[in-house]
């Protein structure tokens, strides 16, 4: 078993950055070097303004940076120095070619793996940390073995990351479990123990689970698919609630009290987003198709179909409530991130909603407390459209606070559940006074106290609750 003294993390993104910063924070005797090809990203990690917003991240990074935590673009030197290398690069969904729209593009994984093979002059443990389809470790092993010489040996581990954005540091400091998969050979098991020992500096031993390589890889996809499936299930029920007068919060609570079901992840919403859920399910669908299991593929595909339906259903509801047209109306969108406490917008429901509003010729006023304005323009830009920015600037305004966004609006739409949008945080009377009447409010996050908001005069629609019930 190797006593790990030096770790390199390839990829300074949402996963690699926080994960390896926490390892440095908890293991002062290990030198952790996080590398990336993107100079701007590394510069940001070395500055006062980190490239990612994540509660608690600054404390961890500022505490260890320059001591046993380093950020650099010198990939080769860090590979050479490391006993153990995390590969934590991006694995976007393929845009073209075989499996387009579903399969993960493994070009970055392959690039990083080939670099390790070229640079390493001694044996290394290589850890697959990115979310990848099953059997990626096998491909990495093939590349590394084909390129290893004589005395150099590579052990491949799968160590999927289960952190959720917005709570990444909390999740990393106190994980439900750490999963480490390895080939069940003496060398594989020894490497597994080496990585387990790193985590055991702060994670109780019984929370470190060891499995074979394939179980570990599949567990990551399965965990995300099961979580997303719960959301699609409660969202499907939210449609029934709206049609019947049942209340989705009450239904979720009543079901969640069954200890076999549990209460978490049953919050109906305008649809799940984030970089993982859709991508991992589509990976699972693609894998099932490849394995000639079409019924299994269709089963998981339905989770994504339901998510798309939920977003479209919400848009339809807004348009029909606003007398079947939103042309030239001002729609205030509160929240652009895919969930609260993050500046990340990947697959955010806000993007789908706003594009639909723009297609209907509405003017959309957007406010989010953490998302950079440039990011919003990038997310809403249509590829290939000339002068897209100018057109977008006519259709949207990005505002400095919720009051500015809602001023003169016909409807307010809550898309992200930021605490600052709650009924006791935002002055909804002030918002109401400055809106066109009737003033409509659509809550896609079950965030508001409906009775209180209706008292002000708003016409309120909340996902999973009977429409406009109780309004004057
Ligand atoms: C997810 C997994 O939780 C994490 O374990 C994995 O490592 C990465 O993917 P993340 O995407 O960061 O994490 O956020 P998560 O909290 O899971 O939320 C995903 C989406 O589901 C968000 O858009 C969120 O708003 C939505 N959601 C979540 C609901 O609509 N209802 C819920 O009850 C929970
Ligand atoms: C179920 C509900 O559990 C109960 O709350 C409701 O009131 C009636 O329906 P029951 O049908 O008696 O109860 O048995 P249950 O233990 O839920 O099992 C149902 C079926 O699922 C069985 O065939 C069982 O073997 C199977 N099952 C259950 C699995 O295949 N895997 C599991 O993990 C659990
Ligand atoms: P994730 O959410 O999985 O962490 P990100 O896209 O946030 O994904 O981060 C992945 C990072 O990996 C990017 O900053 C990218 O520049 C980096 N990267 C990709 N390939 C390589 C490589 N071969 N060497 C170093 N860094 C890489």
Short characterization:
This protein is an alpha/beta fold and 472 residues long.
Write a structural description.
The structure is a single chain. This protein is of the alpha/beta class. The protein folds into two domains: 6-203, Rossmann fold; 229-462, NAD(P)-binding Rossmann-like Domain (Rossmann fold, 3-Layer(aba) Sandwich), CATH 3.40.50.720. Helices cover 44% and strands 13% of the residues. The protein is built from 18 helices and 14 strands. It has helices spanning 16-26, 39-45, 57-64, 75-81, 107-119, 136-147, 168-173, 186-199, 213-244, 248-256, 277-290, 294-321, 349-359, 373-380, 388-395, 402-406, 428-433, 450-456; strands at 6-10, 31-35, 69-72, 84-87, 124-128, 154-158, 178-182, 208-212, 330-334, 363-367, 396-398, 411-414, 440-443, 459-462. The strands form two sheets. The protein has an eight-stranded mixed sheet, sandwiched between helices. Strands 11-10-9-12-13-14 form a six-stranded parallel sheet, sandwiched between helices. Helix 1 packs across helix 3 (57-64), helix 9 runs parallel beside helix 12 (294-321) and helix 11 packs antiparallel against helix 12. The chain is globular and about 75 Å long. The relative contact order is 0.08. Mean pLDDT is 95; it is low at 468-472. Bound molecules: uridine-5'-diphosphate-xylopyranose (UDX) (2 copies) and adenosine-5'-diphosphate.
């Amino acid at each position: 078993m190797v006593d790990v003294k030096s770790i390199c993390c390839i990829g300074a993104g949402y996963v690699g950055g926080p994960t390896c910063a926490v390892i440095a924070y908890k293991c002062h005797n290990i030198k952790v070097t996080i590398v990336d090809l993107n100079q701007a990203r590394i510069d940001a990690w070395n500055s006062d303004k980190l490239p990612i917003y994540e509660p608690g991240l600054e404390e961890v990074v500022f505490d260890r940076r320059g001591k046993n935590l380093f950020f650099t673009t010198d990939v080769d030197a860090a590979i050479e120095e490391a006993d153990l290398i995390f590969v934590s690069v991006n694995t976007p969904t393929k845009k073209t070619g075989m499996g387009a729209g579903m399969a993960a593009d493994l070009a970055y994984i392959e690039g990083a793996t080939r670099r390790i093979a070229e640079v390493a002059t001694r044996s290394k443990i290589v850890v697959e940390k990115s979310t990848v389809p099953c059997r990626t470790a096998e491909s990495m092993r093939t590349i590394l073995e084909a390129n290893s010489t004589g005395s150099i040996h590579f052990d491949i581990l799968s160590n999927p990351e289960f952190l959720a954005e917005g709570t990444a540091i909390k999740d990393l400091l106190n994980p439900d479990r750490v999963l480490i998969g390895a080939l069940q050979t003496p060398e594989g098991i020894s490497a597994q123990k080496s990585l387990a020992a790193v985590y055991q500096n702060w994670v109780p031993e019984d929370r470190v689970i060891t499995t074979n390589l394939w179980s570990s890889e599949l567990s990551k996809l399965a965990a995300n698919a099961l979580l997303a499936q719960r959301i699609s299930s409660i969202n499907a029920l939210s449609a029934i609630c709206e049609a019947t007068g049942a209340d989705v919060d009450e239904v979720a609570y009543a079901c969640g009290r069954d200890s076999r079901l549990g209460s978490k992840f049953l919050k109906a919403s305008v649809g799940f987003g984030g970089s993982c859920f859709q991508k991992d399910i589509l990976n699972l669908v693609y894998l099932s198709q490849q394995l000639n299991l079409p019924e299994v593929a269709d089963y998981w595909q339905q989770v994504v179909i339901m998510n798309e339906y939920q977003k479209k259903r919400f848009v339809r509801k807004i348009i029909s409530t606003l007398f079947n047209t939103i042309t030239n109306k001002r729609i205030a969108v509160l929240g652009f991130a895919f969930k609260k406490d993050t500046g990340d917008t990947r697959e955010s429901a806000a993007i789908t909603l706003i594009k639909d509003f723009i297609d209907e010729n509405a003017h959309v006023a957007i406010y989010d407390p953490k998302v950079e304005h440039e990011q919003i323009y990038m997310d809403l830009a249509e590829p290939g459209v000339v002068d897209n920015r100018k057109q977008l600037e006519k259709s949207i305004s990005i505002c400095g606070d919720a009051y500015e966004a809602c001023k003169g609006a016909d409807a307010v739409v809550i898309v992200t559940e930021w605490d600052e949008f709650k009924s006791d945080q935002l002055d909804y009377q002030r918002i109401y006074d400055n809106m066109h009447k009737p003033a409509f409010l659509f809550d896609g996050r079950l965030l508001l106290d409906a009775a209180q908001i209706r008292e002000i005069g708003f016409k309120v629609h909340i996902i999973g609750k009977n429409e406009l019930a109780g309004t004057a």
